[in-house]
Each structure stands twice: as C-alpha cells, then as structure tokens.
Amino acid sequence: MSLPIDAFTGILHPEVKSYIDDLAGEPDSLLNALTDYAQERGFPLVGRASGRAIGLFSRLIGAKRVFEFGSGFGYSAYFFASALGEGGEVHGAEKDEWELDAHRRLYAGSPLIERIHIHHGEAFEVLEGLPGEFDVFFLDLDKIDYPRALEVAKTRLRTGGLILADNVLWGGKTARPALEEDESTAALQRYNQLVHNDPDLETVVLASGDGLAVSLKLG
C-alpha cells in the first residue's frame, strides 16, 4: 500500500484504516515479525486489509498456485500461503539476496515456509522458467511494468483465475492527468484502462490500501 512521495490523498482516512485493521483482531507472531521488519527498513507493504482481501479472494476461487510479481521478503506471500492450505504453492521472484535471507530468517520454524518459493532472479525470467498455469497473479512490481506483467499473466492464468494488482490508485494520482515525466502514473492509468476494457476480464477496483484491482479471467 506504499504511496508515491507526491501522493495528494490517502484512499482511506487513517482512523477508518485503523478501525478496519483492528476488526481483524491481533495478528499472529509471524505477521507481527514481518510488519516490524518492514517498518524498521521503511519497506512498502500491501497492508493488512489488502492482505486479507487477496487471501480471501484466493480462497473463494479455490486457488492452489500463485505467482507474485514483486515478492520482497514475503509479506504478501504470508496471506496467500495462509489461504492456499496444504499443497499450495506461492511462487515469486526477488533479485536481492538480502531479501531472500530475511525471508528465510523471518519464516524459520513456520509451516508456511514450505508453501512459499521465492526464486532468486528477475520476475519475468523466473515465471518463464516455471511450468503450467496459475490460479492467481499478484502485481506489486515497478509500476512501469504493470502493463507488461498483465500481458504475460493473462497467458498463464487459468479461466476463472484472478489477477490482483496493488497501488492502482497511486495516492490518487491515477485520477488526474499524468505529468509528461511521470511514467509510473501513466503506466498505472494504462493498466487500469486495459483491465477494464478487456473482454476476457471482469474488473473492479477496491478502495483498499492504495487501490486494489481485482480482475477475473472469463475465458
């Protein structure tokens, strides 16, 4: 749910956000550890509300196989792995070794680590090397790469599967014309247009976190 530095609005009032988070009760020790680690580093997170949403949507379609474009040390993977159950697979990619080290350290002793496979490398190359279809794709990578990730994900997503994309409201910036030099906002606006105008997708944007786009593959 990280906002751009020049965001002009938060999607939810801070009190409303805190209220929604509190309704879910106290997070478990692993989620607390993941959150604390991110806050120590200033690492952007999808957030608890959006995390619960992506987990719930995965449960609703009976997902067992997820690919993340943007994994970091495995915060969003926590929600997917919790939702998929035994035999579930969360695949992702991370170029930085220290993120992989943090993932292994934070998840040590948790049964969820058996369901999470964060591969060392660039996401598009990692996906190309993995066989088969996926039930869910999650997009939280460099914003300029969202349209490309959408194109690739559609070819590997099963019918009835989901493409979930974080940050599609981008601190409110996607609601205004993008500045000429603002490639990230322009790419997100392009992504939003693509998923809403694609006849093979049914899409809604939720005011969760920094905007969560949920796209169902119809055919």
Summarize this structure as a short list of keywords or feature phrases:
8 helices; globular; single chain; 219 residues; alpha/beta
Structure description:
This protein is an alpha/beta fold and 219 residues long. It has one domain (14-217): Vaccinia Virus protein VP39 (Rossmann fold), CATH 3.40.50. The chain is built from eight helices and seven strands, in the order αααβαβαβαβαβαββ. It has a seven-stranded mixed β-sheet, with helices on both faces. Strand 4 (134-139), helix 7 (146-156) and strand 5 form a beta-alpha-beta unit. Helix 3 (48-60) packs parallel to helix 4 (75-84). The chain is globular. The model has no long low-confidence stretch (mean pLDDT 94).
Strands across the major sheet, in which order? 3-2-1-4-5-7-6
Number of strands: 7
Mean pLDDT across every amino acid position: 94
Output the CATH topology. Answer: Rossmann fold
- Identify the CATH architecture: 3-Layer(aba) Sandwich
Low-confidence stretches: none
CATH homologous superfamily annotation: Vaccinia Virus protein VP39
Q: What distance lies between the first and last C-alpha atoms, to the nearest angstrom?
A: 30 Å
Helix content: 40-55%
The gyration radius over C-alpha positions equals 16 Å
**Global geometry:** globular
